[in-house]
Design goal:
Elements lengths: L1 E8 L4 H11 L8 E7 L5 E7 L3 H11 L3 E8 L2 H11 L1
Antiparallel strand pairs: 1-3, 1-4, 2-3
Length: about 90
Amino acid sequence: MKFMLTFRLLPEKRDQAISRFIKTGGQPPRGVKLVGRWTSADTSEGFDLVETDDPKALTEFALQWSDLLSLNVVPVVDDAELSEVLQRRG
């Protein structure tokens, strides 16, 4: 299943967040595949598209950053998946 993580940098934690990202590369734990990441040009917010069937691993990923970022995690479907659902609806 795919999830969109949206994040907003806590301004007072900016330097710590940069340091952690440089150290870790922002990679998720085992069981979560990072499909893509986009960050705003001012670096204040961004989006991670991840794929996992393991809610515990997804929670671990969020927990790795929740002290430095405000996070929101939403399950998402791509257009092909949405099309299947809409066609079944008739």
